Amino acid sequence: MKRIIKATATVGGMTMLSRVLGFVRDMVIARYFGASMGADAFFVAFKIPNFFRRLFAEGAFSQAFVPVLAETKEKQGKAAVKHLVGAILFRLGMVLLLLTAFGVLGANLWMWVFAPGFTDEPEKFALATEMLRITFPYLLLISLVALSSAIMNTYNQFVVPAFTPVFLNLTLIASAIWLAPLLDVPVMALAWGVLIAGVVQLAFHLPFLWKLGVLPKPIPSKDPGVNEVKRLMLPALFGVSVAQINLLIDTVLASFLVTGSISWLYYSDRLMEFPLGVFGVALATVVLPGLSKKAAVEDWKGFQQDLDVALKLVMLIGVPAMLGLFLLAQPLIVSLFFYGAFTPEDVEKSSWSLMAYSFGLVGFILVKVLAPAFYARKEMKTPVRIAVIALVSNTVLNLILIWPLAHVGLALATSISAFINAGLLYWALRKQQVFTLQSRWKGFLGQAVVANVVLVLWLLWATPSAEAWLQFSAWERLGWLAGLVISAIFLYFSSLLLLGFRPREFAKAL
User: Fold this and answer.
1) Residue 438: pLDDT over 80
2) Where exactly are the structural domains of the chain?
3) How far apart are the C-alpha atoms of 304 and 406, rounded to whole Å?
4) Which one, of 361, 162, 164, lies nearest residue 280 by Cα?
5) Cβ 242 vs Cβ 417: under 8 Å
6) pTM of the predicted structure, to 2 decimals
7) Residue 355, C-beta contacts closer than 8 angstroms, at least 6 positions apart
8) pLDDT given for residue 479 in this prediction
């Protein structure tokens, strides 16, 4: 159990560094491009290859590949691992090359599918299409990075994969500041920055794979593990990526709304992704290899204990993060983005969608924790059925809520569908008798509820008004924000301690 906590903290720390730089990146983009036509075009052009990356590489592929790789490593040794990885690389590379070629040559078709609302604005559609031709090859590069990350995670090497996104943020920051002024269309610098980042990220991984002794070389010969990965990947392709599909549906529908809607959703989603990435993704990254190894040797008691640890950590950290994000939505948007081309209207619109997204934070994290409990056992049918229900629910809610709430309705629908997904996953695990809550939940929940009430009351009382935030200088905003966050964390954990929560006892109970 200590392994999960320690590894999650390590990955979370590296991810936090990346996310902080991601905020700097978004602050730079907001300052130079605001919520303009160019920003909308870039966010769509970047989201399309990013969507396929999370769908195929970090999503379905990783969920299918890691259990097979873990079983091969545990039962057959390094030689078998190298053969499996080489065979996978050959086939994955061929698919990615074809998909990338289709993406570049058919960029206008992809844009018509994913942002049909842009067709009413020919200039925006043409700009987004040209950007997509530059950003789409990022899919090939970052998918190979995802393959490398899956290998390293299986060998309990979590730091390098978690650190890798830093290069994307640094490259985009540099492109916006120094490359943009050199181009006839400055915003095109962001598209070139994405492509350059993919090359840098892949190059960064290669020495570490060589050091592990598993640097892959494409092998056209067959491997039984390849068929197993393909068998597992098809259902996982849909099941693990519902959140991404939901966000993409938001983009499609938002393309029909007023200019700026896509940017407002992007900036608020980025803030929601901070706790999700630092904690949720880090926890899921650590949980899947551990669950896969325990499933491979049929250690079902350890399997349940690992999952119980993850759920307790979601309650301990995910819930207060959700509440803080909701209550500090406007201060966060003002402090990070209200500069240069970013207007007071952009602040208001982004803040509302951030509040809607924050509602679903715990649901998003729970999906990332509960879904691996199925994939680790190579059980794909149940999460796929649940994913279909969640996706249909999201689409119906989108169509209902977009009319009264515009872009905010899209964010709210995504959040509700995340809880539907998580709730059904948990119910299925209980029904299959794969998981039951372990000890000490009743007292722990009581302590957590009271501590969260204290956190909410403090933030409601101490947070300055929206008008005051807009009048603050940049340093005053950041100072107030840091003070509120630090004091809220202090009060939350102090309340837990006063209520009898003991970290050492909690760790032992884990």
Assistant:
1) no
2) 2-438, 440-510
3) 42
4) 361
5) yes
6) 0.69
7) 326, 329, 408
8) 92
